[in-house]
Design a protein that fits this description.
It is built from eight helices and ten strands. The chain has helices spanning 15-31, 51-61, 77-89, 100-105, 172-182, 198-208, 248-262, 274-289, and strands spanning 2-5, 35-39, 71-72, 93-96, 130-133, 140-144, 148-152, 162-164, 185-191, 214-218. Helix 6 (198-208) links the parallel strand 9 (185-191) and strand 10. Bound molecules: glutamic acid. Glutamic acid is lined by residues 6-8, 40, 176, 190, 194.
Length: 298
């Protein structure tokens, strides 16, 4: 049993990613489970050198330390390969030669099934293939601890989705499912922007015979333009708030309290150090959520 924070190392920790880190951390502490940091650098071209260490350092400054070794997805390709082989043996994959541009030109919001029945084989004249997973015949249902009952019919939403890209890179959906299971993650707490990935992940868990963690999707922090806060729309690193300040702890408490209010909890009023902040925040999380832990496997 464990919980995890799984940042992609595309930049430093900003207020939005801090909220996801804090929610998963509080949930782990209240449940008495280890909290693990996993660096999701599966998409190596998008990874920014040094961002992983900067994120880990900022979390440590704010009092959040991984309860086990930090895991890097770029070192775990053998595990993804095994899961891929298993899905192939189960006849749950098909090769797809469509380019992203072709699919965009068709204007489809979900994969239209173009290569579904073509039985394309790797290494034959059509060039590199992406690999997509076949879909279940019924909608996926689960209960989100924050958002309540959910249902997602993948035949109408994503369509058959990619688990291995044409360039050979592993897709997030496969890597996250394999790693959550391998690390014993029983509690997934993350931003609501990932809500629509959940059914795809549950589907892969079912195909691979892996346990289903419980899920909680917390509100995302919005930028001034109404989009999810990100580096692209001006999120600054939280650590900039205390850089070069003699009273860094004061700025750190402000940053932490702001994240806590994003989780719809009250700032910890009299915290005079980080430790006091976490005691107050954990007590609030316990009061709000411990009745809603939900079974680890639903
Ligand atoms: N790596 C993903 C991200 O940074 C999060 C994955 C997850 O929590 O499942 O958006």
């Amino acid at each position: 049993m464990a919980a995890r924070f799984a940042p992609s190392p595309t930049g430093e920790l900003h207020q939005g990613s801090l909220v996801a880190a804090m929610a998963s951390y509080l949930d782990a502490k209240v449940a008495g489970e280890p909290w693990l940091i996993r660096i999701e650098d599966v998409d190596q071209p998008r990874s920014v050198p040094g961002a992983d260490l900067a994120i880990i350092h900022t979390l440590a400054q704010l009092g959040m330390h991984s309860d086990g070794p930090v895991v890097y997805q770029s070192q775990r390709f053998a595990l993804y390969e095994q899961a891929f082989a298993r899905l192939q043996a189960l006849d749950q994959l098909f090769g797809c030669q469509c380019s992203r541009r072709e699919l965009e030109e068709q204007g489809a919001t979900r994969y239209p099934g173009t290569c579904r029945d073509l039985q394309l084989q790797a290494g034959i004249s059509h060039g590199p293939l992406a690999w997509r997973v076949k879909l279940p015949m019924a909608p996926i249902e689960w209960t989100d601890r924050w958002l309540g009952p959910q249902t997602d019919d993948l035949r109408k939403t994503s369509g058959e989705f990619v688990i291995r890209r044409k360039d050979g890179l592993w897709a997030y959906q496969l890597a996250v499912v394999v790693d959550d299971a391998a690390q014993g993650v029983s509690s997934v707490v993350r931003g609501a922007d990932l809500l629509d990935s959940t059914a795809r992940q549950i589907h892969l868990q079912q195909l691979l015979g892996l346990p289903r963690p419980r899920y909680m999707h917390v509100p995302v922090v919005l930028a001034a333009n109404g989009e999810k806060l990100s580096k692209q729309n001006g999120a600054s690193p939280v650590a900039a708030a205390w850089a070069d300040r003699a009273d860094a702890w004061l700025a750190q408490l402000q940053v932490l309290n702001l994240a806590l209010t994003s989780l719809q909890l009250e700032p910890v009023p009299k915290a005079t150090d980080i430790h006091a902040f976490w005691s107050g925040a954990t007590a609030q999380w316990a009061a709000r959520w411990s009745g809603a832990l939900g079974p680890a496997t639903q």
